[in-house]
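S1.2 Input.
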Amino acid sequence: MTKFCVQDLLLESVIREKNISDADLFWHYQNDDDGWNRFIFEILQCDLDNEQEQIVHSIQHNKRTTVKSGHARGKDYTGAAVCLTHCLLYNPSKTIVTAPTQRQVYSINMSEIETIYNHAETILNQSGNTLGANIMRSKITFDDEPNHFLEAFKAADKSTESWTGYHSQNILLLITEASGIENQTYEAVEGLLTGTSRLVLLGNPNLQTGEYFRSFRDPQYSALTLDCLFAPNVRNKFTGKDSNNPKYIKGQVDWEYVNDRVHKPGWTQVINEKEFGKDPDDFVWESPKEIEVIEKGKTKTVTKLVKEYRRPNDLFLIKIRGKFGRESNEKLVPLSWLELAQERWKERSSLYDWADNDLFLGADIAGMGIDLEVHMPRFGNYVEKPRVFAESDAVKSTGRLITYAKLQERSYFAIFVDSIGEGAGTYANLKQYRNDEILDGCAVNYDIVCCKGSNRDRISGLTDLTGVHKFFNARSYCYWALRENLDPKLGGLLALPPCEELIEDIHAHSIVPRSDGLIQILQKEKVKESLKRSPDYSDPLAYSYFPYKRDLSHLINDTKPFKGVGVF
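S1.3 Output.
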């Protein structure tokens, strides 16, 4: 096949449209005001939306571009198209892709790059042409062109000194999930930004510290946002049922997803028209409402879209609007820590490196009303997906917990039961079963722990990791233990499953200032007011750190778990 050559690839109609000779096309893709977008559309066959095209235009014409994005807004797809464009248009050139995790680099970034490349290559092959590259898991190379390549790697895998080894008259460095990159990496890449080099930062606005956050206030950067409210699927009010519509963009956020978050308790609130505009992030949303109409003398119910004025909270700002939240230092756990914990879970879920860890099983037993029964299994610093039950009573709850614990075949397990209200009966049953030796034989050691958030005696003398701060009550202690096991600066490596309710629950908790210096977490009733439901998912996880006396004689070879509070 013929190696990549622009004049061989383009249809005659494209050449006529540009009204230039085919020999000049390569130069025009590099230098026309919108040349990169034309290349992406005409050669790579990618159809970007207006906001994505603005990003491409910025990267073509600016040395530094930083982008923050809402959920599933296509930032990685756009980044992949840009990287391929730079790699294919410039020779010699070095295109570098990096991210905080291997999963992000290989399963997302390189996967997107390979998908776009293979699609374009298939179309070109039909006319006997080829892009001429060798595409691998972590690299794209060209035969006999050692100074022409695309390379992808996890940022932490490169030492500070090794970054200085990249030299070329054309360098593009794309850093994705940029809020998770250490400052040392940013300092190291500064040495690459010479000549016609370009730096691109892509990420979600989770963290209000670090170089990525500062880039949006740095005049050296061209700063852009991918807002879910302006996504084509959302503007066209597409749902999953419209996936066969040629205008539906698969893989991107759609109207159904955003509408669900608009109406989810704690994400936005309805305001009146007079209040609208007092907050710069206020927005208008058309919500489906069932109304009665009279047609031909008969009353029937129809669904119509009714305009509402809405004010977002931090979760909506970050996840949907692609904006930094208004988070204060009083938040118990920053959203960025929760995102990192979920990334760790995705990497570890298939490795089973947690399979031999002891089981700590927290249980929130459902009461009367709409509360759920939720069990949160924690294997050391790995949390499995929650086990959720809509109906509950003491007998059923006891049976579920015993059955699950036995099936895990652990050398040690502990079951933590919130014994306030309905949980009291379950705890009593578990204790009785222990006395009757029903649980014997399924573990060398096990404990049944009664958890009362208001308890103060159990935490007497206990402090946080600094050894300075004490706690107002046991609930505050447990949630602080959860926080310390999520804190990257403390070496917390807790891995959280992809459960939106769990993230919402944890994020809804904040620190209550006290004059006596004790650590106090927001009262449960206040959290329920914010969520419009009980924090059924975070409570059992937090209570899995409830302090108790544990027999550690079964531990072999001085096994040492992370020594945050709540671990004994």
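S1.4 Remarks. Residues 253 and 517 are 44 Å apart (CA to CA).
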